[in-house]
Amino acid sequence: MNHKRVSLALGACLLLASGICSAALNEAEKNYVDRLIKGGWPSIRDVAESIYNTGNTNTEVLDVAAEVLLEKYPHAGEDRDAVDAVAWLCRGLGSSGNGRYRGVLEHVENDKSVHRKARAHCEKAAKTLPKQVSNPYAAGTVNLELLRNPPPPPPPPAPTVAQGKGKKGAKPAAAAAPAVAAAAAPAAAAAPAAKKVDFSIIREGMSQAEVDSLIGQPNAQTSKMTGKQWQPFNFGAKDLQRLYYLYKGVGRIEFSMKSGYEGVFRVIKVTADPAETGYP
After folding, report:
1. Least confidently predicted of 44-48, 100-104, 110-114, 260-264
2. For residue range 86-102, what is the model confidence (pLDDT) as tens digits?
3. Which residues pair with 257 in a beta bridge?
4. Under 8 Å between Cβ of 223 and 245
5. Interior/surface letters 198-226, b for 16+ CB within 10 angstroms, e for the rest
6. What angle do CA 182, 183, 186 make, to 5 degrees?
7. DSSP 207
8. How far is 39 from 33, CA to CA, in rounded Å?
9. DSSP 130
10. How many Å apart are CA 62 and CA 123, to the nearest integer?
């Protein structure tokens, strides 16, 4: 038990050294951090857009986003995916309402080498944040390299074998080895557990792919077109379709295609209902 506590303590120390605390993150936010530090431009853009749409204000997540922005934006150039990702990172940080990130946004905004579209979004986002702040974010606060390449965990403690009375010259440690191997065999053969359907981690603005990743596929799903399909002045092609995820005994999640040009369904309503049958 003491060895287990030491291992957990070491893990916590590593996370603190990197600048974030995993205990302050839910499953969705852990997914955000993992994709921010390891993903390419499209993944970073998707996460930043989700941060913006869900209104996430967790500084543990936003600090990582700010550090990724500072690290990545000089390499964006004219690439469309990269420029979009930088713009959405700025919008995500700006939507937090936290003046801690104003300096980061102004830094990107004032760099003339950045694409004008990205700079415009950073400028607009920075203006929404308060000027006076006691704890501005400083570059390097989050150690991205440590997050990407954490040191290996300490080896598990060797199993202890009780020394009892027995014949002279007996080798209890060797005799215990088959028992340890036999106990490990069922664990290795065990199938991965199904994802828990927990609506508490689902937020408005999350994409369909995020929901699939967090709580798995529904028992059934159905969709319908909306009347906005035929509105001539719906220039943004907004809310053209609705999609419904039905989870038996849990409830349903309603998505809207926010833009026909983007083609991504995002959560607009989560309804917990233990009486949900799972049928359309």
Report:
1. 260-264
2. 999 999 999 999 999 99
3. 265
4. no
5. ebebbbebbbbebbeebbeebbbbeeeee
6. 90
7. B
8. 10
9. -
10. 18
At residue 118, φ and ψ (nearest 5 deg) are -65, -40
Structure token digits, residue 45: 């853009």
Helices and strands per DSSP (H, E), number in the chain: 10, 4
Q: What is the largest CA-CA distance in the chain?
A: 93
Query: Considering Cα of 112, then 113, then 115, then 121, what sign does the dihedral take?
Result: negative
CB atoms within 10 A of CB 67: 24
Q: What are the distances in angstroms from CA 44 to CA 31, 37, 92?
A: 11, 8, 11
Torsion over CA of 271, 274, 278 and 280, rounded to 10 degrees? -50
Question: Distance between CA atoms of 213 and 222, rounded to whole angstroms?
Answer: 19
Instruction: Check pLDDT > 50 for residue 6.
Output: no
CA 31 vs CA 22, 39, 82, 250: distances in Å: 11, 11, 20, 23
Q: What is the pLDDT of residues 254-280, one digit of tens each?
A: 999 888 777 889 999 999 999 998 888
Beta strands (DSSP E) in 146-264 are 220-225, 241-247, 251-257
Query: Cβ(126)–Cβ(93) under 8 Å?
Result: no
**Considering only CA atoms, which of 279, 148, 275, 270 is closest in space to residue 215?**
270
> Rounded to whole angstroms, how far apart are CA atoms 208 and 217?
10
The rounded Cα 134 to chain-centroid distance in angstroms is: 27
Tokens matching residue 249: 């005994």
- For tokens 């000027």, the residue is 131
SS3 254: strand
DSSP state of 19: T
Tokens representing residue 228 in the block: 């906005």
Phi then psi for residue 222, to 5 deg, are -145, 160
Q: Is 190 exposed, middle or buried (0-12, 13-18, 19+ CB in 10 A)?
A: exposed
